[in-house]
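Hi everyone, sorry if this is the wrong subforum. Our group has a chain we'd like a structural model of before ordering constructs, and none of us has done structure prediction before. Sequence below.
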Amino acid sequence: MPQRCSVPFCCNYGGHQFPKDKQRRFQWRVAIKRLDPLTKKLWEPNDRDVVCHLHFVASDYKDTSADHLHLKDDAVPSILIPDDEPPTPSPRLQRLSRRKQEFDKPDLVAIGVQQEVVIEEKEEAPSLPQATPDADSFIKNPF
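Answer:
Right subforum, don't worry. Here is the predicted structure as tokens:
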């Protein structure tokens, strides 16, 4: 099974293995800006980790007529290296964060918590004489 690209936020599979030379290996590690989540130090790749072809410029490759691309000895990943900011969240993650925010703010009425209501007393308006309907003004039901 092909390895996934080691560059953060890159989802491609397959690519070029890290060099065996310690100095070049270190240059690649610095270029991809990947940190170990536990130690927060520069990440150390294993023997199977790769960097995909999207992170190299055309001048990093040897001129060969073979089907496979071969990197020059001094090639270092240099393009599409992400910033420290992750990409914008997917619509699914946006919905999830909205749900979490709504859950954090409970609906007091829905859970049955009574809220204190303050009613201000106003001066009573002068009462107007009420007109009382007399019996003849009602419409009689024809049924």
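For your construct planning: The first strand starts at residue 16 and ends at 17. The longest helix spans residues 91-104.
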